Amino acid sequence: MGIVILIAVLLHLACSYLKLRGCKMKKADNEASIRPRLKIALSIKYFILLPAIILALVFYSVNPKCSILIRVNLVVWINYLGLLLLITSLPLKVGSYKTLGQNWSAKIAIYKQHSLVTTGTYGLVRHPVYMSNLMIALGTFLATGSLSLLMLGLGYLGSDLIRSKEEEALLYQKFGHEYARYRKRVGGFIPMALQHSILVFIIFCNLIGIIDGFIFSLSGYSFTIQVLSSWLPP
After folding, report:
1. Cα–chain-centroid distance for residue 97?
2. What is the domain extent for residue 66?
3. By C-alpha distance, which of 124, 118, 109, 111 is closest to 169?
4. pLDDT of 222 higher than 80
5. 182-201 pLDDT, tens per residue?
6. Which of 44, 59, 68 is nearest to 155 (CA)?
């Protein structure tokens, strides 16, 4: 599985690289200056985190029990769920680049012919490319069980979050209330419906925890412990 995960991540990088190579240089109508925190975040992302992720995946491919990976054992179906997330994240990224078309740029900039794209994957989330990176980070962790890769992936996403704030500020300057309505209607990295589902799930889990704690205090039996133990291999 390690080789498959490594190939999936490298395909993502190849997709981004090819998009960057194929992007024609255009004169920006309005270009955001790169703030120091974004410059630092991007430098850390590309020169520290990305090489570290690739290196860790190479180590995992050679020896999944390598100590630097700091792994937790997960049941096989969770590993395959992570692999599924990794695989499905690639067409999401490709489709997002295709939907954005000529509006995409490596720079944080607005062009004369710039239009607000709200269809396709951009009708699902405002930043589907970054959503695909989130799926990579989560999928890699679930597939490998590596806490080291999870931390590196979250750090990588941190730079995406900082960049997205800069992009949204520029889009709001250009499209005003139209973008504000879009931002209110559509989630950033996670679809709005999924955000609501996660919130309901968290509330449900808290209620179950309260009830389970009360039952445990009376009988010594914990339903939560039984469920969690079934998710982790012996």
Report:
1. 16
2. 2-9+33-190
3. 109
4. no
5. 999 999 999 999 998 989 98
6. 44
Q: CA nearest 132: which of 189, 194, 47, 205?
A: 189
Is the model's pLDDT at 35 over the cut of 80? no
In this structure, is residue 114 part of a structural domain?
A: yes
Q: Mention every residue, 6+ apart, whose C-beta is less than 8 A from residue 220.
A: none
191 backbone dihedrals φ, ψ, rounded to 5°: -55, 145
**Cβ contact 149:56 at 8 Å:** yes
Q: The domain that contains 40 carries what CATH number?
A: 1.20.120.1630
Q: Report how far residue 22's alpha carbon sits from residue 231's, in angstroms, rounded to the nearest whole number.
A: 45
Residue 30 confidence (pLDDT): 61
pLDDT digits (tens, 9 = 90+) for 69-125: 888 888 888 999 999 999 999 999 999 999 988 888 888 888 778 889 999 999 999
Residue among 115, 50, 125, 139 at smallest CA distance from 95: 125
- Of all helices (H) and strands (E), which one includes residue 109? strand 109-110
Q: Are residues 80 and 148 in the same domain?
A: yes
Q: What pLDDT is recorded for position 234?
A: 58
The pair phi, psi for residue 169, each rounded to 5°, is: -60, -40
Give the Cα separation of 62 and 50 in Å (integer): 19
For residues 67 and 112, state if they share a domain.
yes
* Confidence at residue 87, expressed as pLDDT on a 0 to 100 scale: 93
What DSSP designation does 124 have? T
Question: Distance from CA of residue 80 to its chain's centroid?
Answer: 18
- Which residue, 125, 44, 139, 25, is CA-closest to 88? 139
